[in-house]
Amino acid sequence: MPLTFWGERLMSVKVKSAYEPLNELTVLEIVKDIHYFEAAAENELKVKEIGDGNLNLVFHVEHPSSQTSLIVKQALPYAKVVGESWPLTLDRARIESDALLKQSEFVSTLVPKIYYSDQTLAITIMEDLSDHVILRKALVEGKTYRKLAEDIGTFTAKMAFYTSDFYLHPFEKKDQVQRFSNPELCKITEDLVFTDPFFNHDTNDFPKELQSQVEKIWNDKELLREVADLRYSFLTRAEILLHGDLHTGSIFVKENSTKVIDPEFAFYGPAGFDIAHFFANLALNHLAQNVHAKEPFHRESVQGYLLETINKTWMTYETVFTNLWHEHALDPFAKTDGVLERFLHKTFQDAVGFAGCEIIRRTIGLAHVADLDSIEQKDIEVFYKKKALELGSCLIKYRKTFTSITELVNKIKDA
Q1: Domains with residue ranges and CATH for the chain
Q2: I want to staple 299 with a disulfide (CB 3.0 to 4.6 A). Which of 91, 151, 285, 293 is the partner?
Q3: pLDDT per residue as tens digits for the range 157-202
Q4: How many CB atoms lie within 10 A of CB 20?
Q5: Is 183 left (phi over 0), alpha (psi -120 to 50) or beta?
Q6: Over the stretch 72-110, which tens digit does the pLDDT of each residue have?
């Protein structure tokens, strides 16, 4: 059955009895059924497929004269990057819409509005963010956004606290863990982030010039033991509701606005996981700016901004989480000295290690980042990918020696 979020207005929506991939014509039929646009405008609607991801179809629907628009996103039953030989659950569309609705309870200004969701068709219809840009693209171009750190720090802290055992009744928390059980997409993360890059696996993708560096990782037993610990944490620690894929391609930005999108990987997992992915992708961009920012002054400015964003994001996270803890924590040990501090310390050190795994997998695994892959000179690309592998390995192996965000920032700065 479809989920309807506009109340009485959507009661007459026609529901298809079976899943079928949408096209520009069938998208129009669905949009007309939900009556988002005025009736007089429905014959003037323009539809364009704009998806460039691996898992979904994305359509932009616009009424040009009134400048109103929306996005229709449909999950595909397979990964586009591989094809129909890699089947995927359509339930991830339900998880995504549920996650966006849960996020909107606590950080409504930081996620797109949801208008309609249909589980049969695996679609979510949501706010159009065409006036924003994808953060990764903006960062590659050397652009900066002053609210980014505060917004992501607030997003991750509020979602961490309000979906944790520190705040929720145990029954509600366990019900939420079941609701957001996401085994198929978690398996993708288990394989592509924590397993395949650390072994000679056919999903890996890297220049032959990196072979010796990659084999060093595969044969580093100390490193592999630490990755195994991080992977086990990912598998077993249902601490908070995670976005699950919080990289710079999952964030839309414009001046004074940040929107976190695409939580189809949402599940209950370790608290340090989301913020780690954000840090890792900023660290990769910091490396790439040595090439992308050709003017020395501009390069110094952009890299300084990236490091300050990492620092301020964590400081915001700590502050927001601490304030919520003191105001709203229901845990019986909440007032015990050191419990909060120990949790934050553990979250931070986990984040350092998870960031290392993300850096390595984005360098030699199946899914890369444009930050490094867009470097035109092959030898320079390889040079900075070696730097990325060294940084990632260091963060994984020595994560328990990091005691402050300053130490992490300095390590990224010196990479």
Answers
A1: 2-127 (3.30.200.20), 133-414 (3.90.1200.10)
A2: 293
A3: 999 999 999 999 999 999 999 999 999 999 999 999 999 999 999 9
A4: 11
A5: alpha
A6: 999 999 876 666 677 888 999 999 999 999 999 999 999
